[in-house]
Design a protein that fits this description.
By secondary structure, the protein is mainly alpha-helical. The protein is built from eleven helices and no strands. Helices cover 76% and strands 0% of the residues.
């Protein structure tokens, strides 16, 4: 389940970052804008594909259907199973991932002793932290995903424009930053016994910079 949700979050972060980078470069650099104009149909299709990918992945992350993997279901499992993050479980994971056989190496007991072992009460705030981000997605972005990208509804062009008019780049960035950081925190807890920290955005910032840098380097190399 973790890998499925992580894949959707990565797809949403990557497609959103690529879309914004392509548009930013065309606005900032006239030579890049001219490149876009020479192959206008390609760039129109490319940006539409990125936008579609983003909204489909964004919807999957929060999909509450029983037959879907969602961030809500992942957090429910996380909170209900604190034993997954016990020191004993961490020790077994470290032994498996490090391919340790026989006695524990000298570093392992000290590592396990210093690990954070959460209770269910320690994990419950994760669900409360998710709530405002889901509310924002549900109010603004879910209708666009369902009525425009996933299904072609009967709404007028004016209604569609009204839905898009409610979106904000800062909203999307905040939601994606939270989701990426939440999954990173759970991963670090499971693999290293690190205390949860939903305010450490280092890995999210690194990922966004990496995607934007790759996109910009590719575009600037084009003839």
């Amino acid at each position: 389940m973790f890998l499925s949700v992580r894949g959707d979050v990565d797809a949403a972060v990557g497609s959103n970052t690529a879309y914004l980078t392509i548009n930013r470069l065309g606005t900032e650099d006239r030579s890049i804008w001219n490149k876009y104009q020479r192959d206008g149909q390609f760039w129109t299709l490319n940006t539409y594909a990125l936008q579609t990918t983003f909204f489909i992945a964004f919807g999957r992350i929060f999909d509450k259907r029983n037959d879907s993997f969602s961030i809500q279901k992942l957090l429910g499992t996380t909170v209900a199973n604190p034993a997954l993050f016990s020191r004993a479980a961490l020790r077994e994971r470290k032994r498996y991932l490090s391919r340790i056989t026989g006695a524990d190496p000298p570093w392992l007991p000290d590592f396990i002793d210093q690990a954070w072992e959460p209770t269910a009460r320690d994990l419950e705030p994760l669900q409360a932290a998710l709530a405002p981000h889901y509310a924002r997605f549900s109010a603004i972005y879910k209708p666009i995903r369902h009525k425009y990208f996933a299904h072609r509804g009967a709404e007028s062009q004016q209604a569609i424009e009204g839905m898009f008019g409610k979106t904000l780049k800062t909203d999307v960035a905040e939601i994606l930053r939270f989701l990426h950081t939440l999954l990173w925190a759970i991963r670090e807890l499971a693999l290293n016994g690190t205390r949860l920290d939903l305010n450490n955005f280092t890995d999210y910032d690194r990922e966004v910079r990496s995607v934007a840098s790759d996109i910009e380097r590719f575009i600037r190399q084009l003839a």
